[in-house]
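Sequence design from tokenized structure. All designs in this work follow the same two-part layout: the structure record, then the generated sequence. An example of the structure record is given first.
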């Protein structure tokens, strides 16, 4: 299960634009940071 999820994520990363992906990751990071603050 975990392996298929990783493969899906990687195919998503490959199909996604690097800039957009980076922005999404930053948004998630900020959310996580505020949650654990």
């Amino acid at each position: 299960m975990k392996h298929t999820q990783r493969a899906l994520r990687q195919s998503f990363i490959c199909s996604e634009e690097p800039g957009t992906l980076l922005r999404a990751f930053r948004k998630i990071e900020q959310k996580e940071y505020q949650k654990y603050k």
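The radius of gyration is 12 Å. We note this feature because it recurs in several other targets discussed in the main text.
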